[in-house]
Amino acid sequence: MSYNRKLFIFCIIIFVFIPISFYTYSNINYNKYYNSVLVICENDCSDYDKYSDYIVKNKMMYPSGNDGHSALWYKGYTLFLALLKLIFGKYWGSAYIVANIILIALLILLVTFIHIKNIKYKGLPLALTVFLLFNITVLEYSRILLTDLPFSVISGFIVVLLSVGIGRSKLLFILVALSISLAASFIRPTGIYYLFISILYIFVFFLPKNISKSLSIIIPIVVSICVMFISIIVTNYYVNNYDVYIELPHYYKSFVEQLLKFNYLGDDMFTPENRLGAIIVNFPYKYFYLNDGSLIEIAMTFIKRIPRIFELYPHFLYPSIEISVILVIYYGVLYSSFLSNMFHAIKFRKSDPEHLIMIFLIIGYLLFFISISHVTTRFRLFFDIMISISASFSLIRFYKFFVIKLNIR
How far is CA 201 from the centre of its chain? Predict the structure, then answer.
């Protein structure tokens, strides 16, 4: 049987097996508290459920209000939920879980078919499937009514398309990434980051190849550093002019409120005289950093968030020794494979630039993320999925070295 035929069969298995296995996992972990396979949590989840019900009932979009989840940036997600409810009725929860996992299968297939002609990465779909199937957080959040999993997977499409578009000089890939990033901006507001990057990449594409590839590496970092400076300056200004913040118009006040809450005041927006401190970690535990509101101290808040994103702790749903050991092994392999691919990308940056572009797109989002948000387990989903894509290439090289070069059978 030819390689292409084997690959086609394997891709069909991925597309069928992954949704079935994830959905089976969801049924095994039937949630008695919510009386459903789908988990609808009290805060964000219930808001999305409520607003999608409004669309179904009134056959129109709900107005934006004081609640942040009614904003324009989430209306694409609630519209998607409303369509599921209209099409599948009482089975919409099951349809939502299957839709999430089909997205993951499509991501694996996209990565597979982009690299189908490269014989060096024959086992790439298997490596990526293993990384995603053994990720407990991906498994669990596929059945929780939050934007995190669909946004992270869709961002995976964008990063893959942008890196290959610039790396191989394919404008169509960048245009598709631009379209997807526009959709991602209506799932979560942080989708604006990749929308802006995609627009810049279109301009960069028409420059000489050497310049465009160099700029595509620099742009994500420069954009993120600019956002960091804005976050630091805005937070610092309103810390020292809190009375001005009180009088701000609503559309701007909500943005400033988030920066003050995350970078200075704390969880419940206390006054500067009675505060908890900047939020570093919000879940599965709370960790605050009491800074003085100066430019340097706010920047230190951002730095303190970085290691917490990759922190290993007992899984909040399954706090057992066995699961903790599995997590240590899993993330040990994942992070070491990612670092290996990073070194490889730097070494072959001229002959194979798309890997380095992908890594800098991930690092750029990391810098952007720490400047506008606290850390929580579900926000780490983005980095788990992105790092899994990059690490898969290294895992294939590792396999070839030990199995083929050393003749281990």
Answer: 20
